[in-house]
Amino acid sequence: MTTASGTATRAAPPTAASRPEQLYPTLTAAQIARIAAHGRRRRVATGEVLVQAGEQTARLFVVVAGRIDVVRASAAGEEVVASFGPGMFTGEVTMLSGRRGLAQIRAGMAGEVIEVGRDDLLALIQTDGELSEILMRAFILRRVELIARGVSDVVLLGSSHCQGTLRIREFLTRNGHPYTMLDLDRDAGAEELLERFHVSAADVPVVICRCTIVLRNPTNQQLADCLGFNEAIDQTHVRDLVIVGAGPSGLAAAVYGASEGLDVLVVESTAPGGQAGSSSRIENYLGFPMGISGQELAARAHSQAEKFGAQVIIAKDAKRLACDRRPYALELGDGQRVPARAVIIATGAEYRRLPIETLPRFEGAGVYYAATFMEAQLCAGEEVVVVGAGNSAGQAAVFLAQTARRVHMLIRSGGLADTMSRYLIRRIEDHPAIVQHVHTEVVSLEGNGHLERVGWRDKPSGRVEMQGIRHVFAMTGAVPSTRWLGGCLALDAKGFIKTGPDLSPEDLAGAHWPLARPPHLLETSLPGVFAIGDVRAGSLKRVASAVGEGSIAIAAVHQVLHE
Ligand SMILES: Cc1cc2nc3c(=O)[nH]c(=O)nc-3n(C[C@H](O)[C@H](O)[C@H](O)COP(=O)(O)OP(=O)(O)OC[C@H]3O[C@@H](n4cnc5c(N)ncnc54)[C@H](O)[C@@H]3O)c2cc1C
């Protein structure tokens, strides 16, 4: 049995306090008094349940007298995960997101507590710098601790060779939700569990959600609903700003917008982080000299956006922008409609797919679009192929070479010099396990259920080579996610959104631009609708520039809202 982790990454920067002190701090009398101003004092009796496991209403408890225990059900009965004495407080990252708690909170000993609701807690965190640091750090470290200790309310029954299983693992991992994986091919206990919940091996992947609800091959949205990832959307309420996409650019816009007092809703179709979330290590983002995994960066940014009060909705697609009148409205895949005074499109780009007929059979079953720790585990000790010559292909090759027996890089052009950063080229050249094949392209993918053979062609000679390789990483760039916009905005020839000075007089005339002023820097051909990050025509495809554009756009949003 593997206890799999979610992001396990919402780590906070080190400070003078030791890790146990940061995880379970004891507040001073002055700090408690400041919290008390945001909550209500009340007596609790021994054994009184303060929050049920799986309850969605997040509440913080500070112990004034007595003891509070965090308890979870386990095969052996009940397990006390943590205990809090006087001066200590409950809570982890679900306090910010409003998601369901993973364990029960109850009074282990009669006493007195201060109870603080989520809205009051967010107000406190936003205004009290000292308490914000203590609380945020403890919440984040506690989630890491829960993941490390396998405290989870989700069991995934599946097979590491099954596409659906990989999708669910990816979804839970990238959303920072801990889960326990039982592999039908390896874990004896898996069969027993299938029987107990009256499901068969044909139903996998099966998710046992919150220890009771059985979902057969659920969609990401069904999983998100079961785990209570999303608060209800008030469709009558006109938001100041709706952001579509929670990659680095969308999350940056959410942090700046919410911290500057805007009422912000973010809609994300899969998980926070976007393309950056699939990067094993980003080494050129300012302030992280040792590099940072994309997932870790995304998890921190997500917490930061929620800390400032942005609402982030997961596993919901924007399907259409109703752009014929203001306020605009975003229509979601599930039929909901969200009105907004300003909109930021931050939908980035989707991976380019290999032009091979059999590809859909092997996506997630031997063909991958990300090289993270999870994929590296699947191909440890084996030969792998990385297709592409850009920085993402270079990062993947170097990362996979740590665990794979050999990494074949298939490069369509004559070399890497024009498309890859110098530091990566040097690492690839120096690595004994990486073999470069220039002027080479993939021509066939074969296998029964899982990829078993890869064919590639040497273009100058036309010679095709078949290799018994079970893992291919397609890292061949991306196309903009703009199809859903259906003619609302001026796009360039490749489908990227044109903004600001890139919009020609013809673009503006074609879009019936109604204002005397020209569009702001990141504004599209529709007043009050902005495009940022990789989806924007002419943008630099980098994390730092995406984040920068997210912050710049907010300045223009303020101007538009006052127009
Ligand atoms: C493997 C890899 C490694 C990389 N490494 C680096 C690096 O080391 N350094 C660097 O600077 N850059 C790196 N990049 C590039 C960097 O990740 C991107 O430039 C950056 O992520 C762009 O951010 P974004 O927010 O504009 O778009 P994205 O990251 O593409 O995010 C867009 C988000 O929008 C969501 N979305 C799309 N359509 C919809 C819809 N209709 N409704 C709702 N949500 C939607 C997507 O699910 C996604 O989460 C890397 C990219 C990859 C793929």
Structural features, described:
The protein is built from 16 helices and 27 strands. By secondary structure, the protein is of the alpha/beta class. The strands form 6 sheets. Strands 11, 12, 13, 14, 15, 16 and 27 form a 7-stranded mixed β-sheet that branches. A 5-stranded mixed β-sheet has the order 1-8-7-9-10, with helices on both faces. The protein is globular and about 80 Å long. The chain starts with a strand and ends with a helix. Residues 1-15 have low confidence and may be disordered. The structure holds flavin-adenine dinucleotide. Residues 244-250, 267-270, 274-276, 278-279, 282, 284, 317-318, 346-349, 370, 391-392, 395, 481, 484, 533-535, 541-544, 546 line the site of flavin-adenine dinucleotide.
What order do the helices and strands come in, and which of them pair?
Elements: E1 2-4, H1 19-23, H2 29-36, E2 40-44, E3 49-51, E4 59-74, E5 77-84, H3 94-97, E6 104-117, H4 118-127, H5 129-148, E7 154-158, H6 163-174, E8 179-183, H7 188-196, E9 206-209, E10 213-216, H8 220-226, E11 239-244, H9 248-259, E12 264-268, H10 294-307, E13 311-314, E14 318-322, E15 328-332, E16 337-345, E17 349-351, H11 359-362, E18 367-368, H12 373-378, E19 383-387, H13 391-400, E20 406-410, H14 422-430, E21 434-437, E22 440-448, E23 450-458, E24 463-467, E25 472-474, E26 478-480, H15 505-510, E27 529-531, H16 543-561
Parallel strand pairs: 7-8, 11-12, 11-16, 12-13, 16-27, 18-25, 19-20, 19-25, 20-21
Antiparallel strand pairs: 1-8, 2-6, 3-6, 4-5, 4-6, 7-9, 9-10, 14-15, 15-16, 17-26, 22-23, 23-24
The site of flavin-adenine dinucleotide has 38 residues, from helix 9, strand 12, helix 13 and helix 16.
